[in-house]
């Protein structure tokens, strides 16, 4: 062992030196060079820092730098996050997205263009004028539809969601407010009155019939009983004059 190399190192180093720091790492750790001023110091980490990607070799695991426009990467040629001012597309960092795509400033990626989508039209509403369906001949009817998918920045804008057209109806008078209820109340009272009248008439009829029946019974009780007519055969029998 070189006199400047020590094996009793700290921080995951397998071998180290006072001037260069870690020279090799313990198993499964990644070796990376960090610049401090004009000097580079070797350190051993469990994962590579931002801007680096890890590569495992039989004798050592190393962290290598990503491309200049890449913030994090899987390999040198496949970026997973770009630095500010660049948009990620298929592992690459671009200043401008392709024509068939658009830049998403929220995710800093090139994404597909999304166009507006709407539902089917609803049926036409009843013909109305000033919120009423009576008291006019010409009015308007409307139909609506809903937005199902809002567009992206470069997508087609949404069309109108409301349509109106003229309509003609058979003119009819509007029923005054409260008049319909008043008419129904009057009809109900009249019906109740008629029913009460019929009930009273039926009661009077039953009372009169009962009174007539009682009168007839009283008359039958007070009239004298009629004598029976004599038997004609008895009147014609011969009289005994022997005495």
Task: Please tell me about this protein's structure.
The chain is elongated and about 155 Å long. The strands form eight sheets. The protein has a three-stranded antiparallel β-sheet with strand order 1-2-3, with no helix packed on it. The chain contains two helices and 17 strands. The termini are far apart. A hairpin with a 6-residue loop joins β1 (5-6) and β2 (13-17). 20% of the residues lie in helices and 33% in strands. By secondary structure, the chain is of the alpha+beta class. Among the domains are: 7-65, Hormone Receptor, Insulin-like Growth Factor Receptor 1, Chain A, domain 2 (Hormone Receptor, Insulin-like Growth Factor Receptor 1, Chain A domain 2); 74-112, no CATH class; 117-168, TSP-1 type 1 repeat. It is found in: Secreted. Keywords: Disulfide bond, Glycoprotein, Heparin-binding, Repeat, Secreted, Sensory transduction, Signal, Wnt signaling pathway.
């Amino acid at each position: 062992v070189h006199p400047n190399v020590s094996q009793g190192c700290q921080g995951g180093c397998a071998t180290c030196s006072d001037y260069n720091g870690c020279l090799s790492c313990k198993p499964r750790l990644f070796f990376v060079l960090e610049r401090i001023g004009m000097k580079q110091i070797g350190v051993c980490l469990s994962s590579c820092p931002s801007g680096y990607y890890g590569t495992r070799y039989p004798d050592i695991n190393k962290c290598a730098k990503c491309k200049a426009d890449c913030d994090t990467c899987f390999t040198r040629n496949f970026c997973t996050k770009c630095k500010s001012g660049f948009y990620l597309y298929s592992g690459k960092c671009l200043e401008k997205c392709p024509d068939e795509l658009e830049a998403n400033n929220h995710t800093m990626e090139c994404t597909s263009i999304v166009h507006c989508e709407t539902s089917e039209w609803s049926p036409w509403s009843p013909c109305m004028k000033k919120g009423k369906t009576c008291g006019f001949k010409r009015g308007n009817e409307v139909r609506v539809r809903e937005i199902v998918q809002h567009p992206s920045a470069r997508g087609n804008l949404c069309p109108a969601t409301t349509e109106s057209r003229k309509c003609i109806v058979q003119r009819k008078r509007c029923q005054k407010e409260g008049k319909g209820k008043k008419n129904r109340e009057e009809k109900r009272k009249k019906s109740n009155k008629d029913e009460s009248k019929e009930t009273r008439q039926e009661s009077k009829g039953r009372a009169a019939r009962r009174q007539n029946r009682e009168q007839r019974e009283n008359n039958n009780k007070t009239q004298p009983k009629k004598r029976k007519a004599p038997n004609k055969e008895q009147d014609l029998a011969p009289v005994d004059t022997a005495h």
